[in-house]
Amino acid sequence: MAIREPFTDLEINTQDSGFYKGHSLPIALISKVTMVALVLWAILWPVTATQTLDAWNWATLQDFNAFYIISVGFFAFFLFVLAALPVGKRKLGGEDTQTEFTTFSWFAMMFGAGLGVGLMVFATAEPVGLWGSNPVILAQGADPNSADAVQSAFRYSLLHFGFHAWAIYVITGLSLAYYAYTRDMPLTIRSALTPLLGRFANGFLGHVVDVLGVVATILGVAVTIGYGVSQFVDGVYNVTGMEWLMGDAAEGAAPKPSTVGLLAALGIIMGMSILSAVSGVGRGIKYLSNLNLVLSMLLLLTFVVFGSFLFALTTYGTALADYLWNFIPLSFEAYSPLSQEAFTTALPAQAEPLAGALYAGATDAWGSYDGFVAGLEGEAASLDPSAQAAAYEAGAQGRLFGWQSGWTTFYWAWWIAFSPFVGLFLARISKGRTVREFILGCVIAPSLVCFAWLTILGGTAVNNELQGVADGAIIAASNTNKLFVSLEMILPDWLLGAVILMCVVLIMTFLVTSADSGILVMNTIMSGGAQETGIRHRIVWGLILTGVIASLLIAGAIDPNNADALAPLQDAMIVGALPFTFVMVLMAVALAKALINDSRREKADDAVGQPAE
Questions:
Q1: Which residues fall within 8 angstroms of residue 415, CB to CB, at 6 or more apart?
Q2: Which of 208, 266, 257, 264 lies closest to 237, judged by CA?
């Protein structure tokens, strides 16, 4: 039976003249109207916007937490299966296509992609945070911040920054690269769905797919810049001591950057990014990326020399083995919400009448058993200790769901929203590689670098807390300040200022390159895959991105019920990433179809002359 030729006649109509010359008008206008509407909503009705986004986020997590978890597990296993099958030998391009970069340069660029603002914040914060709360601790398998909790802390740290995270990027990157280099199609999102959409990719459905990619990208970049700007303010404060940069901390909470400080830093960072686009300095982004890599290695070397390197070295090996051993349950174990009715039926008889008083504490993902008992009042506090323990056990599913939806699912949504950005970058540098090379190189190599950061920086922080050197200071610090507090514990005074200043420069250059590159990706999608886009559009999208971040930061600060100015950004990102998750699942299905059919065509003699898919 003949196999039909693949559909490759993708036509993305762009404007011939005017402001939108070279851009698809529907994609550009729908994307801009959506983002500008979000900005105006957050500015004009800030409390309503934050509360609505929070409600949407909660509804998304309740209904789609399992979908997020299982989808990412599927991405990882799908890619490893592809790499193992004969189709893994297929080249991204013709058989004679040569790679554009040496293997060393290819790996170096991937390392640069992996060493972003996210790792600057979370290489220290992630292991320390997970050391205090993770599923093993919530199931009472270990005490928070104990030696027994170290293994599980790094297990989940590696999960969030390891093979699963990079599999998300590679699904998008491999799909874009395959169609671009083997079928000569544009580097844009809709190309990856042509085996499923066929000619419909040229119409409204194609526009929707590209718009979802733009919206996901801007929200993913916005969250990244939000975290980076917060850490930038922490760093500048550590260097200069300017009090106005920091806000008044709530009782018992770590001090965080003030809204004024965040907005001032955002203006500086985005101003530099936009200036880069206007002046043509953007051509120097390659040199900034090289500087990032050098400074990153210097920071890593600082922790190797002054930190707990032996602890980090042993942790790397044991954590990696533990992560691989638990790979399948980590991939697919999804938790569901626990209703109060289900909680009540699981209680012992004497505790059932007090279910309302027990439910919130027993399902609190961020508490502990001791905190649960200490927080009981009235009749609940008078319950027999065995009944209290049974009540806490009855809430285990609720705690696990709360933790997973607030931690792992947050990361999966963030990486999914960021995947058009990183995926497009990986596609651009991988022409001439085989499918197997692309998968193993882009999933395993950068993951191992991330593991090194997590175990060296995070391991030093955890070890200093274990040994009593930090005396709780790192644990108590805000996520964006944990790096600087950790440096204070290990460096002599004469070197500390210089290293913190280096970190501030590193964060700044990461932020500028991330913003500039993110804007370029958005314009690439809107121009039908063109790699050269007009400066005016980069300026406009730079301003829109600035507006999205600033408006949601302000809205988060205004809402009296909101404890974290970054929360509205995170809520918008999780909601906005959901539609693109469906797109990515379809990308994987489409890629499997394309690879199988292309392999069959090579063996068939009657593949010519059939109608298109």
A1: 165, 168, 169, 220
A2: 257
Give the mean model confidence (pLDDT) for residues 510-525.
81
Report the distance separating Cα 334 and Cα 314, nearest Å.
Answer: 30
Phi, psi dihedrals of residue 132, rounded to the nearest 5°? -100, -20
Residue 491: its H or E element: none
Contacts of 283 (CB under 8 A, 6+ apart): none
**SS3 for 18?**
coil
End-to-end CA gap in the chain? 15
Instruction: Give, in order, the Cα–Cα distances in Å from 274 to each of 40, 140, 337, 538.
Output: 21, 50, 44, 7
**Structure-block tokens of residue 520:** 């370029």
Task: For residue 434, list its beta bridge partners.
Answer: 91
DSSP 8: -
The two structure tokens encoding residue 340: 């109060």
Token couple for 233: 């303010």
Instruction: Give the span between the Cα atoms of 234 and 245, in whole angstroms.
Output: 8
Tell me which DSSP letter residue 144 carries.
T
89 CB burial (10 A radius; 0-12, 13-18, 19+)? exposed
The predicted-structure confidence for 265-304, as pLDDT tens digits, reads as follows 999 998 888 777 666 544 555 566 677 778 888 999 999 9
Q: Which residues pair with 246 in a beta bridge?
A: 257
Q: pLDDT grade, residue 606 (50/70/90)?
A: very low
Q: CA-based Rg of the chain, rounded to a whole angstrom?
A: 25
Amino acid letter for position 52: T
The span from the CA of 230 to the CA of 570, in Å, is 14
| Distance separating alpha carbons of residues 439 and 173, to the nearest angstrom | 10
Q: Are 606 and 2 in contact (CB under 8 A)?
A: yes
Neighbour-count burial of 480, counting CB atoms closer than 10 A to its CB (0-12 exposed, 13-18 middle, 19+ buried):
buried
117 touches 566 (CB < 8 A): no
Q: How far apart are CA 214 and CA 530, in angstroms?
A: 15
Q: Among candidates 449, 496, 453, 425, which has minimal Cα distance to 177?
A: 425
Distance CA 100, CA 98 (A): 6
If you ran DSSP here, which 8-state letter would residue 454 be given? I
What burial class does residue 178 get, using C-beta atoms within 10 Å of its C-beta: 0-12 exposed, 13-18 middle, 19+ buried? Answer: buried
Residue 25 to residues 32, 94, 457, 516, 541, Cα–Cα distance (Å): 10, 33, 46, 22, 15
pTM of this structure: 0.92
Cβ neighbourhood burial of 426 (10 Å; 0-12, 13-18, 19+):
buried
